[in-house]
Each structure stands twice: as structure tokens, then as C-alpha cells.
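User: Predict the full complex structure for these chains.
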Amino acid sequence: MAFLDVKDLKVHFPIKGGILQRTVGHVKAVDGVSLSIEEGKTYGLVGESGSGKTTTGRAIIGLNKVTSGEITFEGKDLSVSQKQSKEVRRDIQMIFQDPYSSLNPKKRVIDIVAEPIRNYEKLSKLEVKKRVQELMEQVGLSPESILKYPHEFSGGQRQRIGVARALALKPKLIIADEPVSALDVSVQAQVLNFMKDIQKDLGLTYLFISHDLGIIKHMCDDIGIMYKGRYVEEGTRDEIFNNPQHIYTKRLVAAIPDIDPKKRKAHQQFRQEVKEEYDKSYNDYFDHDGLAYKLQNISGTHKVALPQKG
Amino acid sequence: MSEELVKIQNLKTSFRIKDDYYAAVDDVTLSVNKNEVLAIVGESGSGKSALAFSVMGLHNRAKIEGDIYFKDQNIPKLSPAKLNQMRGDDMAMIFQDPLTALNPLMTIGDQISETLFLHNKNLSKEKRRERVIDLLNQVGIPRPEYIYDQYPHELSGGMRQRVIIAIAIANKPELLIADEPTTALDVTIQAQILDLIRELKEDMDAGVILITHDLGVVAEMADRVAVMYAGQIVEIADVHSLFENPLHPYTRSLLNSVPNADEVQDKLHVIQGIVPSLQYLPRKGCRFASRIPWIDESAHEENPEMHEVRPGHFVRCTCHSQFYFPEENKEEHSDGIS
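Assistant: Here is the predicted structure of the two-chain assembly.
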């Protein structure tokens, strides 16, 4: 049994229309996603905007209503009602994308970080303060700064406060939704290093959501590629980057800018070739609605969405 | 030697905070040639956008000293009317966020048409429509007749950015400034937009100033690169020279802090400390010194200047010759808030 198991997850949002606001259709934001994460590993979820990667993460943590499918965490079912799964859910926490808008500007750091502790544990004021100070220490901020407000910190420091809040209840799984996209490169490096460090120290498991393949490659052990709510490919880091099978994955990998200007011409040509292949073989890889087929195993860990043969 | 299009000399753009002026762009000298992409790289707060806005004459509160020569005119000395005439005609800008840069209440066609009308009042309505359809075709928008009557919210991000580019190139500008043109876009779209800018540059023989923090984009697009830190250019060189042989400690640190696509390393390099804010910026000595404290003070110049190390490769300060990366990247409490 895997640590986190998601089976055939569907999240559909109703489209309301007409004067009676009846449901006239559904947006299939997540349409049959299955994934499993091993303990202590980092699983990367990649896709362009609108591919459903964030919705998947939010559904796992219970921020989006699940239409159908199963989510099991350490063998316990998470798709039951919020109330029943409350105790399990404290083990799963989230780090948000934008450290400028995910921290309440009117609250002091101590109140931001202590909020989950106050929700779940009955501790005295002094105990809470001590816990928050420990957490600040853990994320590399000085314990004295707990009385400051978010605007007094730089972007990287704010993201650390977001991490401290996520760590407050000693979770086992952290869902990180584009945790560094809003940060400058040097600050980005700081937060990524730090996330790796605490993963080792605390034995954390990450579900890492990003559109940046460079960062995904740096952070993740296993990777799933999403397109229009479905998986197009899943595999280990090596399989996805060195042996991509689905044309969409190939195109994504080819689109990563190459940091070596000497290879510019060759890279452009390669990208052009992949684009032509993409245009030519689009119908072989996507069904008549432009959606991906079901995943097929091509090796023990490597799955690709291909049409059924025969 | 290619033809010089823009020449910026000792540009200083200062903003007023309380009663004093602080320079966000501090003594910048550089030039842009025709049919060239000059990339300006730096982190937020380095002054790269302030520099671009100065060239476009878009600052209305800032104090601008120094000269920006473009087409025999000195931009900071021009009247607002003259600037309006030049903007959108001789020079144009592509903005970062394609949603906020478009008017939500005007159709795509009308917005592009407006730019044409403002700079050439003699063009008939039919001619303008034709030209707009041409432009939409040129930037690779499918079914331009249909898109003409659509509103910005009906288009995807990539399509909107193409519309912005269509507006920018409507009057065939000689200078195109692209301020983080692909930051808000997905990778596959990013590749297409960059290709488009590159093609347009060649077609129009235009000079392009590309502002970005993404070193991958720089490596793919630029002919020359200027690296900015705290309002100053710290290194400027031909793109090959810069990536093969980066000299300034800041350039080297930046290159080291990006995950490498070819090999997976355990740790990324972290630049110590934080970018000083405008008010507290040390105006004397090497501005990067506080972020590489393990380098001996004597390595820095008292008044760091640009040195030509190789032909066309300039670097500020002498500290690069003694710079090395520390063995381990020790992280300390980093909330030195002043």
C-alpha cells in the first residue's frame, strides 16, 4: 500500500446557465487521475495552466469537492466527509504559490503560524509561543521576529513563514503548489534547498506542483504530466526527461530553454522538429475531443497515454 | 560593426522617497544596435524595468539625468507631445501581463486599429482593417477576421500576448522593448512567443531590449547581455562570452543558482543576504561586496569602474579576479531587516 493513493479522481465543476441558473454542463477540471506516492519521496505534477494540476492538489487536501474517485492516505479514506477525515487531514499541509497574498497582512507572524496549532491542539499561550519560536528556528528565521507583520519580510522569508505554518502540525505530506514561482532566482534557490533539507530532517513527502520543468527535474523523483485534466505520461525523472514517449511530453521537454547559447541553433531546430511531429501526429495521441487516452504501462514505472491497440 | 540605434549615456533615474531622491538606475551607459537583442538581466529591484521605462519616456515623477539618444533625439529632453508621437511609432513596448495591458472594453481589432490611426490619420477605415488582419496573421493568430471582433477576455494568455505584440509592431518600430514578455506564459507558448520576437526583429531590422530574469531565455534570445545589480550594470558582454566565461561574482552566483538541465545537483547556490532597498543602498564601493563577505575587502575597488577584460566584455570592480565560491553554503538567520 502506497503512502498516498489517488484512484480515478474526478473533480467536475458545474456550469450554470439560463435564467434559472440550472446546471447546463460540467468543466472536467480533473478527469480520472490516478497517482501514488511513496513515503519520503517527491512527486512532481506538471502541466500548463488549466491542466488541472492545482485542482488535483486541492482535492487531495480537501479544498475542492471530489466528484468521484478514491483518495487514501496511509490506508485511510480521505474522500469521506471533512468532519470524519479531520484527524487525518492534519497530516497533510499545503504551501501556497504567492507568499505575498497567502499570509494575512493584518496578522502577526505568531498568529499566522499558530493558527493550525490552535485549531488542532489545546495548548497554553506560552506553549504555543514556544512552538512557534521553534518553528521559526527550523525555517531559519530568528525566533524574535514572531511579533512582526508579513510586510516586514522579504519574499523568500515570507515563503519560509508559509512553510513554518505548513510544518506547525508536524505533517507527513506537504502539497507545494508552485512554491517558488513568485520568487527571484536566487531566493528560489534558497527555498528549494531549504525544502530539500527539511525533507531529509523530518522525513517529509512532497507533492510538488509546478509548470517549471527545470525545477521539477531538480526536486522530484517521480513525475506525472497532466493535460486538460488527464494524465498523458507518468514515470521516474529519468524516464520523463530522457525517454519521453508521449508527444506532449516531448514538446514540453523541448520547450525548456537551454542555458547554453552555443546550442541555440540546434535546440531551435530540435524544437521545430518536435513541433512538426506534434502537429502531424496529434490525432494519434489524442482522441476526437482532444483529450488524452488511458494510460498504458510500457515498463514497471513508466506509463503513457496511448490508444488501445486493435 | 553594426549600426548603433540607441545610445544611453550616464543615465540616472531617481525616485523621490520622502524628501530625497534615490537613484534606481545609477550611471548606466550602454548602446543597442540595429537587428540586435540586448538582454538586461537582474532580479526584482535591480532597476532593469526603471531603465526600460526611462528609454520609453514613461516616468512622469522620476528625476532623469543623463542622455538617451535615439534617432537624433535626446529622449529625456523631449516634450510629452513629441514622446507620444514617437511611442508606438518609432519605439514600442511589450508588457509583461497581457491581460492588464489590453483594454477589456474594446475589441481586438479596434485596439490595434487605434494605434494605426493615431500615427497615420490618413489611412482609410478599410485600409486599417486590412492592415490589422495582416498584423494578426503576422503574429500567428488563426482566423484573424473572426478574432478581430472578439474581446480580450475571449482569448487565451498566449493569444493575448500575440495581440500585444501586434500592437507593438503595428507601425514597424525601430526599437522594441520587451519587459518580461513571457513570464506570465506557459513554456510551450513561451517558446513560440520568443520565436516570434526573433523573427520580427530580423524582418524589421529592429533593435530589441529584452528584460528578463530568466537566464534560459537570455541564452536562447540575446546577442549581448547586460547584467544589472542595484541600479548598476555589473557586467556586459556578448552572449557567448558571458555564458562561457562569466566574470562578475553576481553573474556567476546567478548562473549557479539555476537548476541545471543537464545534471541534477543536490544543492543550488544561494546568494547570501538580500538586495538592499533603494534607501539603504551603499552608494560607495562595490555594491555586491556585502553579499560576498568571504572575499577580502582589498579585492574591491574604492570606486568600481567598468573594465574591458576582453574585447566587448566589460566587468565592474576588480573583485572578480579574486572571487571563489565558498565550500559550503552556510545559511544563517537571514532576516536582517533594517
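Residues 329-338 of chain B have pLDDT under 50 and may be disordered.
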